[in-house]
Design a protein that fits this description.
By secondary structure, the chain is mainly alpha-helical. The chain has a domain of about 30 residues. Helix content is about 20%, strand content about 0%. The protein is elongated, with a radius of gyration of 39 Å. It starts with a helix and ends in a 61-residue tail after the last helix.
Length: about 120
């Protein structure tokens, strides 16, 4: 029903005759107000007995071993390496090495984009 509600499909809130038909009387809606229709017949003793049984069963379960909290040793490779440049700092463009494809430009005399001393 929730999936249908999420996609905005209106469904009938009424049941067809099933096993628990009388439970939803007199208006037979999908979400009856059970607080006024049904009396709580569970005694306090019965609920305490169930709770005690649950606690006894939980005591029998194996638990995960606990470990004392301790300081984690630092890594062998420190993050403060001095031989590598800081990625946050900008350097001059002379230090950049840009990859060039072999088919992009000619090297040497056949280079059309080569700057020359001759002006046209």
């Amino acid at each position: 029903w929730i999936s249908l509600f999420n996609i905005y499909i209106n469904i009938s809130l009424f049941f067809i005759h099933k096993e628990y038909f009388e439970y939803f009387a007199p208006d037979f809606t999908l979400h009856p107000d059970v607080s006024t229709r049904i009396e709580n017949q569970n005694s306090r003793q019965y609920l305490d007995q169930i709770r005690q049984t649950i606690f006894e069963n939980l005591k029998m379960l194996n638990h995960a071993p606990s470990v004392q909290i301790h300081d984690v040793p630092s890594d062998l490779l420190s993050y403060d390496r001095t031989d590598e440049p800081d990625p946050e700092e900008r350097s001059s463009e002379d230090n950049y090495s840009r990859p060039e494809a072999s088919n992009e430009f000619y090297d040497g005399d056949h280079d059309n984009d080569k700057e020359s001393d001759v002006e046209i």
